[in-house]
Amino acid sequence: MQLRFRVISGVVVAAVAVGCSASASPTPSGSASEPAAASTAPVETAEPAPAAFADGKVAFSSERGGNQDIYLALPDGTLVQLSDDPAADAQPVLSPDGSRLAFASDRDGDFEIYVMNADGTDVTALTADTSGDGFPAWSPDGSRIAFVSDRDGNAEIYVMNADGSGVARLTDDPANDFAPDWSPDGSRIAFDRDLGGVNFEIVVINVDGSGQVQLTDDPASDQSPAWSPDGSQIVLFSDRDGNFEIYVMNADGSSVVRLTDDAADDVAPAWSPDGTQLVFVSTRDGNEEIYVMNADGSDAVRVTNDPADDGDPSWGA
Fold this sequence. Notes:
By secondary structure, the chain is mainly β. 4% of the residues lie in helices and 40% in strands. It has helices at residues 2-9, 14-18; strands at 43-45, 57-62, 69-73, 78-81, 89-94, 100-105, 112-117, 124-125, 133-138, 144-149, 156-161, 168-169, 176-182, 188-194, 200-206, 213-214, 222-227, 233-238, 245-250, 257-258, 266-271, 277-282, 289-294, 301-302, 310-316. A hairpin with a 6-residue loop joins strand 15 (200-206) and strand 16. The longest helix has 8 residues, at 2-9. The radius of gyration is 17 Å and the shape is globular.
């Protein structure tokens, strides 16, 4: 689960270092220096959405169309396919106002960061580098995007303006850094750092690159941090208890609490806009599906139901 999540629907930059997997092989389709052509995507009926989706919509990636594309689950239970490209489109993240999505795609031969409108139109490449770029994350005001790139030799956290200009490197460490997420006040970015083997830890850094603090210290894999909307907590997934489960801790790393307890893997947590619920990915029903649960871990509900794998959920306005 970890390798597949990291390479295909988690850390796409890892695909550059270890070689793309069979289900996410690069398929060139134009130049990264030019906006990609938008396609007309079909609309299909999804499983009934939880009532909480009335507060927003959930973007995710899925292989249900034969390769990895971006989908949007709407409050009325419909599912809109936003991308339709023979390459792999992954890691969709809704902008703070819900009008756009940033995502990673290898449609130009290597993974780059793209943006598109929330209806799938106006697809535009933001990065154009021969390295791998992935893990986009919007700043709270929507003016900047943090992302991961190995353009300087290993995976580091970078920030850029929302139009792709002003790229700046934030971290500089021999270890690989992944999965950035902005604090609600826009002052800090949390991410996970690969310290070797299976040991990933959660780290926080100021947006100017100062004040780096490691929040977790466990020999297991602590990954994919996400700040709560009020900034008081960080949710993550970890295998510290034997398999991947969802955990939450205070924003300073204290009081780590396990939220899920299932023999399957639970990964990729993200908060609802009001902070009362969490969306995540689980294999508890045989393959990767999207689930929603209360912020205390209760009342988990499956949102998607398809033989193909669904991942990378992002809950937005």
